[in-house]
Amino acid sequence: MTRPTRIRFTAGSLARRWLPICLSVLVIVFYFVFLSGNAINVPFADDIFDVLKVLSALSLAEDKTTAFHILLAQHNDHRTLATRLLYWVVYRVSGEINFRQLTFLANLALPLLFISLYMMAKSHKMKFLVLLPAALILFQLRSYGIALWSMAAFAYFYVFFYGFYSLQYLHKVTGMKFLVSVVLASLATFTLASGQVVWLVGLVSLLHQSLVRKQVSLLYSLSWACIGLAVLIAWRSGLETPNTLSSMLTNLFNSPGHHALYALTLLGSAVTESSVASAALVGTTALITLTIFSIRSFRGPDLRLELCCWFIVLSVMAMVFGRSFTSVDYALSSRYSFPSVLLLTTIWVLVAVRSDIKSYSSFMLIVLFTLIYCAGSYSIYAKALKPYLEKRVQMFDEGKYWAWPHPIKETNDIVAQAISLGIYAPPARPLPKPAILVQKDPK
User: Measured between alpha carbons, how far is 359 from 300 in angstroms, rounded to an integer?
Assistant: First the structure.
């Protein structure tokens, strides 16, 4: 008869394992409690067009071919097929679309990304101490502009969720892992336009394993390139956009400095919403750090952390091509800050793992710094979120569903159709104010 396994609590295990685990869970729970107090069942902006309008059209579709074309139709410069399928599944399972529920489902990508970082940090003996600062950076309010906006949250959170796990499955690739990775890369592609860069980063991963490490057949790289090319051709088929490759390259050559500053600002926007100089400095530091560690680890057996960071960087570069017509300070907008937040989170794990940090004092200093950063975000960005939520509640109470630059009549008609089809049931008016709205500012 085997003896039951006993969990032994020692001072060392408490400091290295149990305390950081409990604190990380507490940080995550606090974030979702905040969401619970402020998420509302009201469509906003692209929710109207990419959720309700699409689901209404699917409900009225005469055949599967029509339904497929509805799912595949472009949304701005994106193909959101993967997310539209999720909306449809949620609708079929629950019987209606609830935007409060969608907000939680979208934000579930964050714990899944956190688990991905854990998988890449498992080799570190103090991995749970490594992950505590990661939790403090990732689960905070810098990205308040999309955290409570279900369509945008699905787009920005899930494109990286799919991309990270696609690169995970390419590590020590096998036939089955390759197929799973292809599916995930395809989902990333059909979630947000920037997700297409995962095919390039995945190819680098496979070439590294075949040409540098001599571990797998070059056939994987060739197959990946062919499949990726086919997916990208399908993605671009019938796409109508002024952002053609030639126009984007022309814009880049005409104003390379503007594009470079825009990219660096996006990369560092996790630390500020008001200073281009500060964001660009952080972005430059992050890019230099990533480059140094990538060179040092080039011949190493595991480049997942580096590749995930480069996936974020290249995604940001893709975002620049689509947004560079705006002024640089627009890159500080909260809705575009999540790639920077995820980059800083992943770079911290990269530095800790590759440098094999083991000093408790170093960890405590980083934890203190990231704790101040996390707590400060709730203080600073909750105030910025307040008028944003107040406006949404006010317009709903007035019977207006808003999506710039569309007229209210158009958006109201779309929501009215979804209501008549039983797809969406709005809450009673007046809508109770989210928890953040009843907090009084200190005098």
Answer: 24
Q: Give the C-alpha distances (Å, rounded to integers) separating 343 from 75, 157, 212, 262, 369.
A: 26, 13, 26, 16, 17
Cis peptide before 301 (omega within 30 of 0): no
Helix (H) or strand (E) holding 194: none
Q: Tens digits of per-residue pLDDT, 259-281?
A: 999 999 999 999 999 999 999 99
Amino acid identity of 435? A
pTM above 0.85, yes or no: yes
Q: Which contacts qualify for 293-297: CB closer than 8 Å, 24 or more apart?
A: 293/350, 293/351, 293/354, 296/354, 297/354
389 near 148, Cβ under 8 Å? yes
DSSP of 41-90: S---THHIIIIIHHHHHHHH-SSHHHHHHHHHSEETTEE-HHHHHHHHHH
Query: Do residues 315 and 197 make contact, with C-beta atoms less than 8 angstroms apart?
Result: yes
Number of C-beta neighbours around residue 282 at 10 A:
22
In residues, how long is the chain?
A: 443
Summarised one tens digit per residue, pLDDT across range 201-224 is 999 999 999 999 999 999 999 999
